[in-house]
Fold these 2 entries.
Entry 1:
Amino acid sequence: MVEVSNKMTVMPGLRKIYGRPQSLKDVRTHYCPGCGHGIIHRLLCEVIDELDIQGRTIGVSPVGCSVFAFDYINIDFADSLHGRAPAVATGIKRSQPDKIVFTYQGDGDLAAIGLAEIVHAAVRSEKITTIFVNNANYGMTGGQMAPTTLIGQKTTTTPFGRDHRECGYPLRIAELLATVEGVVYLCREAVDTSARVIQAKKSIKTAFERQMAGDGFSLVEILSPCPSGWGMPPIKAREWLRENMMPQYKLGKFKDTREG
Amino acid sequence: MAAIMAGCRKYFAYPITPQNEIPEYMAAHMPEVGGVFLQAESELAAINMVYGAAAAGERAMTSTSGPGYSLMLEGISGIARAELPVVLVLVMRGGPGIGSLENAQLDYFSATKGGGHGGYRNIVLAASSVQELFDLTQLAFELADYYRVLVMLLVDGILGQIMEPIEIMPFSNGKTRSLPAKTWALTGTGRQRPQNIISTMLMREDETYQWHQRMAVKYQKIQAEEVRYDSYCLEDARIAVVAYGMTSRVAETAIDECREQGLPVGLIRPISLFPFPYQFISQYTHRIEGFLVTEVSMGQMVEDVRLAVNGRSEVSFVGRGGGLLSHQEITRGIRELWLKLATK
Amino acid sequence: MQREVIIAGFGGQGVLLIGQLIAYSGMLEGKAVTWLPSYGPEIRGGTCHVIVIVSDRRIGSPYVTQPAAIIVMNRPSLDKFEDRLNSGGILLINSSLTDRLPERKDIRVIAIPATDLAHKLGNSRVANLVMLGGYLGATEVVGLPTMLQALQEVFPEDKHHLLPLNKKALEVGMSYLTEP
């Protein structure tokens, strides 16, 4: 019998074609039903396994829902103060240049309080990778407005919908960072359908490979559903993401220095 | 230079007067030893880069002045929680806000009583000469590694600017401590060990309580073993001036002047401000009738001296909010205290 | 014995440098020295100054309110520091850039047209060295050979071609005291 995880076994004659990635811990997450974080964690772990870098990857988690990412991903981890993950990752990478270092950040963390840190990590072309999870609100603190919240979107701090006259306009991080010379690989993906999940994984893998090649700073923005924050069931949240977020936040590759 | 000699190889900072000589030196000399000098986009980023480098097991440091220090408090609090060994140089300047570039000793409270949120302690050392600053910088890295704490070098503005000859020698404080291996550092598991986690959270049940219990033991050990002080002309003194940093040297000149006139006055100079030499001061209260605390502030360390004296002797204060305290001002304070004691 | 001097002038007149040369020479002669500059925005444009102490014993306060000697390189510095000189002290004035003499009668005044003398040497920027020469001549705080060694060590290699000029400026300042 083949051991797939510590709980499952495969019957003789059957072949394992899909299992839990080795670097993903066999525990239940604290994420809400329909949340995108679980999927993205898994994609990260699949990439880490496929690149065979579990033993030399160091993660930096943010303040936000994914603050406990080290409970699920079995590698060395630091958590960071709100928004400072790129600075912390800079300190780690400059001390351990042969390791693969990534930050995992949400939109409140990265696009509001930590905007200076992410922009300057990109400016310096730090050889780190950022996984930027955009769900258009502050999930952990209870669904407040984020810089990425859409015009008209209701949150607990925009109870009548985001009004640009009061709160300005949604911030497009991928487009913003595409103007920074230090960025070597940058794309925006989503995890609302299987096809897009597969595409997202490819991009994460490329981003890590670019870091490992010593090219410079890479970032993958991922549109991710937040059913609890948005106040809707998981299936509805995926539809809402497609209908409302995607027109504002176009998917695709924004920069790849290897393609000239 | 002392930091590099002490094996510091990671330095992150943001320019601010009056301490720009440090980043400029580091920028020129870190590459010679294969180290990293990085000018951050802000003090917020700088202290968090230090957090990252220290988490990765390196001897890391930063330096700043008042406004930058206020920004760094977020990271300093996080470093305290994560128990990372870090050295921070704070060159004090005048006033709150942008304030001024004048010489001052206004950050004593913030440095020794916590500063940031959450009830933590840093070791705080104050030098009174360039030579001592050089020596204490090396000691700071040793203490930081030994206790896994942030060690702050609290520097008066003029000590940051003065030039004096020094002897460049590896520092030895007489005892060789074996420093614990950094088994907790983020170096990648190599699939050889369980994951290491450096965290500034205390979210688990009971974790806050447990952490503070543990820190209390650590801080008590520091208070028992790391108190440092110096004295001058104390043997027959009936008045003691208490001063730290450069101010203590101004006090020495005042003491020399008063001694020439027959006043039995001496100096107590705390070198470690946390842990503060409470016991050393309190043991003199049977003989020393009056303590004159002098600082370039309106009175901060004086509160700790009052705690040490605990009402058993007179405590008076001479200070100014910023600028250069002259020895004449201290001499006047000594004379006034002497008269007060005589008429009592 | 402890000797203190305040040197003051415009930023760019080499005030900090001659202070450094005095301190460095003192160090070479095995004495305790301190060099304490004014700093911050005041070093741009306005007057800047430095306090130098050379002493046979450990130096307490590096800050001196009433020094025994003051060198002023221009008029604003004279206005600012004249009153701070200790009674009986020496006030050296760059008379090329000051249009008045001190009012005090309890001090020794040495006026040297340093900028003019430097100009005659072909470079008005060595006025500071002329004043330094005057100070050495008047106080003998350190010996001339020590000062020449200090010049050699303080100046970076790429400025060594200026050493003969600086030496000449020192000598001009020193000899001005005896043969103005």
Entry 2:
Amino acid sequence: MDYQWDFSAVVTYWPVLLVGLKNTIILAAVCLVLGLFFGLFVGAARYSSNRLVNWPATAFVEVFRNTPVLVQIMWFYFAFPIISPIEVNAFTAATLGLTLNTVAFSSEIYRAGIQSISKGQWEAAKALGMTYTEQMRRIILPQAIRRMVPAFTNRAVELVKMTSLASVIAYGELMHQAKTISIIAFNPIEMYTSVAIIFFVLIAPLSLLVQRLEMKKRKSS
Amino acid sequence: MGYEWDFSVVFGNFDLLLLGLVNTLKVTGLALFFGIPLGLVLALMRLYGNKALRWPAGFIIEFLRSTPPIAQLFWFFFALPILLGVEIDPFSASVLTFSLQSSAFFAEVFRGGIQSIDNGQWEAAKAIGMTRNATLQRIILPQAVKRMIPAFLERAIELMKTTTLVSTISYSDLLYQANTIAQSSYRTLEVYTTAAAMYFVVILACSLLVGRLEHRLGRSGEITRG
């Protein structure tokens, strides 16, 4: 255990790590926004009583929930370009994989959230003459979303962690930058330790937030 | 879309893919074997330890939960061997990483389960003269573990999905085998689609099983989720 720690390369290559951090945050933010947006529609589709709407949505959700996300990213990077009309670079492939994965998981959160609202709310809104869309938008969703916040924050935590998988297809996020530097500077110990710490600093506040939100939710219910 | 599908490469190498699947299950199984007891220890340290035990346990759990598994895996595979001066092969690094990684999640499941048991159970056990350890062992854990089963199985499924990372340090799991076959045959579409389908079949089967179990336990009493 007489290893001499030397973090000087971490300092020297700090700008490279910062680029990686920026890319990690961009990827996570893009996938979170797109995932939560489309998740609502898929969640609503699964809630629908029309089979033509319900079944494809269910199949989509089950496929993306029951396959490893790394396989999804690899599929979009190596297999999808063969049948895709557009060119797929590492960022597109990672965004596709992570977004669709987030869509699948968040649609389940929307579904559970919507189902947790009592039937009386729907009936009361209907009695006031609201259409289905109005009931959903004005009465159900505002109440349901408040209950879904802890689960969504949890998804965000998972998503930030999952962006590190984009390093496997050489997207220049934090993990990939660290790998590159560690090869140039021969310092895997310091490099990977630093990256773990950076991720921890990035994610720990989010997970603490989840815990507090869940505690608050438990108290209020 | 004039692409001609050709699955002959997949059929010709199906035994390699199956071997990969067996290796995936092996890593998952061993990580569960080590991760669950370790998770129990961490949970007990966090719940009942003094400060010297509680804080490190809390920190380990939070650190393992708040860093990406791939960062942990790379640390154990690339960094730890230099630090210790020993060689660590991909298999050992994988089992080590995923045992520790899953132990943090299992610790939280244990904690949730133990905390969900009504205080009256503790008091009743105390009233008939049981020590704290005996209460935990005979009264609390048996009830808590039953409630935790669905959460455990869900974590086990998550773990199996996460083990695909071992392909990045060239341990021959299902994804690694798919990579190898795809690279040598250029049939990426067929190979990756097949690999995804294989994962889907195995994981969906497990998920359905968990769903049914949850349903049954849900009827017989409340359950906690991790």
